[in-house]
Design a protein that fits this description.
heterodimer; A: mainly alpha; MetI-like fold; two-stranded antiparallel ribbon; 16 helices; 2 strands; 4% strand; B: mainly alpha; 14 helices; disordered N terminus; Sugar_ABC_transporter (chain B)
Chain lengths: 312, 315
Amino acid sequence: MSFSVTEPSSRTKWFAGILVIGYALITIAPLLWLIATGFKSPADSIAYPPKVLFQPTLEGYVNLFTDRTRATAAMLEAAGEPQTWYDRIARDQGTVISGPSRYGERFLNSIIIGFGSTALCMVLGTAAAYAFSRFRVPLKDDLLFFILSTRMMPPIAVAIPIFLMFRQLGLNDTHLGMILLYTAVNLSLSVWLLKGFIDEIPIEYEEAALIDGYTRFQAFWKVVLPQAATGIASTAIFCLIFAWNEYAFAVLLTSGTAQTAPPFIPTIIGVGGKDWPAVAAGATIFLVPVMVFTILLRKHLLRGITFGAVRK
Amino acid sequence: MTHTPVERASGVPPKPLARRIRGLSDRSIAWIFVAPTILLLLAVNIFPLIWTIRLSFTDYRVNRPNRDVEWVGLANYERILTDPTIWKTMQATAHFLLWTIVLQVVIGFALAFLINKKFRGNDLWTTIIVLPMMLSPAVVGNFWTFLYQPQIGLFNYVVAFFTGADPASFSMIADVNLAPWAIVIADTWMWTPFVMLICLAGLRSIPDSIYEAAECDRASKWRQFWTITVPMALPFLMLAVLFRGIENFKMFDLVVQLTGGGPGNTTTLTSIDLKREAFEKWRTGYSSAYAVILFVTVFGLASIYVKALNKVKER
């Protein structure tokens, strides 16, 4: 059996494992608490001491997706038997459902703006990254640094002129305006990341294709793109996550039609104080896709969050 | 025009790529590919920046578009630099930056060091630790106000459980002394994994052979840590500090949702103050000057830092 001095002893491993698992449990606790709160009744959510065991209910989710009005006992009597399970939950609270809340709308906006900007960002970013990777672009290093530096600006600092510019162009509070804005915000990330991925594809593949009579465009389309597919997919997910989570521009530049979920979730209020189960339900639904993507992305995580500046 | 393998093998040097293709030259393709990106960035980043600089010399107010705009020169800058409340804001930001960076570097490096011991199942636990930083800071900040509630909040309950204090006796976000720590704790919870990942990359870049050589020289583990591990991981650590520094200097969403800058102005970071000036008091010219000052500060500090970073890398 070979013995390596750099291989930690089993006791060291055991000790390291305990500490890391301890930290991971502390880290995950607020998230588990968030998910659990979504399934509590409003009374359970503010109980003291905080309840770990509770009767799960979908009240929070019903409150999140519906607008309800308080009804008197006589009116409830007259309304007849509740038709659906969510009607029944609302009826138990002494309310009737008056219509859908705006959460669904806001969530849909998040999806439209998130996916729209990601798609646009990938088209522009892949083309630019390919050009930076394969051609002699004049002032290449300066341009690349310029692209990166756009990320250093605090969003609030450029928000005023963007606000004025969008107002002039009629883009304020529109999906198109937010898609263009988030595309610009994410371009630095996608160009830098994709350039890294394309750099790794051997140039010989394209040369072979060119020799076989392909044009540059054909070589790019049929040789480089399929090779870069994994890199493009993970870059796309990072762009989507950034657009999905963005708050500063969303809260400053949108007020109604194009507002995404992050500015909306904190404004959910209930009767007589904050409806924490509804807030938690809204947050859970909103966070779940990102959690799933994070687990899928774990191999590319480091590259994605550092613009490829550090490679594993 | 095509080349056969025979031609290729015959020793004729291949012609430049540009001449092998039909239609567009490489140069024009390069421009077609790069131009849209550059144009969009110019429109959405550079143009607004120049506009901000221009506005910073005026007394323009967005909410009164019909008023005559007066050119006031450097008056806005003068007012900001002599305003004591701005210095309070800067102090709060510096405090926030210092403590978040110290805590995140120490905890993040320690975690990376432990994970690098390659115990069983470390991938799973690493993924769990990384989750918070991928979430929306605003949504997370909003939920943390619930965790920080006196009496009903999980945070207070846990602290009370371990210290024996009354959970109703303190409020992390309403107490002038505790609120700055409330934002430091939440930010550290969220962003320590970022530092951890970068440190992990740094530790994994150190070749085993160096440790083997040190072991032959009978260097103690402690000594190996300080003479090999720390110096070799230092450029990575510094990179993590750079990224966290820039991000936390422009910190807005998490803190706005958590404390809204309060109580009083104890957690009013520069971005929050700037937002109030620009979008609540609508002092557009004044806040543009403020934005320019912040921008110059972050760029200045970042470029000095990058110089230092490059020196460390060269060693």
